[in-house]
Amino acid sequence: MSQLGTEPGLIDDESELKVVERGDTWFRLQHNQTGNVCTIIDTFAEMFPMWAGRVLITADTEKWALTAAEVATGLATSVIMSPAEAGIESFVPSDTTPDGRFGVLVQMYNRSRFDLNGQMI
Hints:
The chain has about 120 residues and is α+β, with helices and mostly antiparallel strands. The protein is built from 2 helices and 7 strands; from the N terminus they run βββββαββα. Helices cover about 15% and strands about 35% of the residues. The strands form 2 sheets. Strands 1-2-3-4 form a 4-stranded antiparallel beta sheet, with no helix packed on it. It has a 3-stranded antiparallel beta sheet with strand order 5-7-6. The chain is globular and about 45 Å long.
């Protein structure tokens, strides 16, 4: 955690995040506008300002829902030198989806909300 210093406070002058609490192997960030708090485990992480999208993909079978989710996320594992970052969040049981079919939740991230919109369509 040497990159963030040792005292709670703003990460930098223009940041909307503030370190509000710190432990030996973790710290908590708070968003200045929303008040949302997130706990970060001190391993390795990079933070970028990003827009997020979340999509529920449903299909007749679990296999086809997973196949569609895998195709939708492709190789978008890092936003560095890639137009987006994406991944599979979780499976959704058919009794909890709007159409009663098997589902998979997918998340997509981009630095631009306009680019994210185009990539999600």
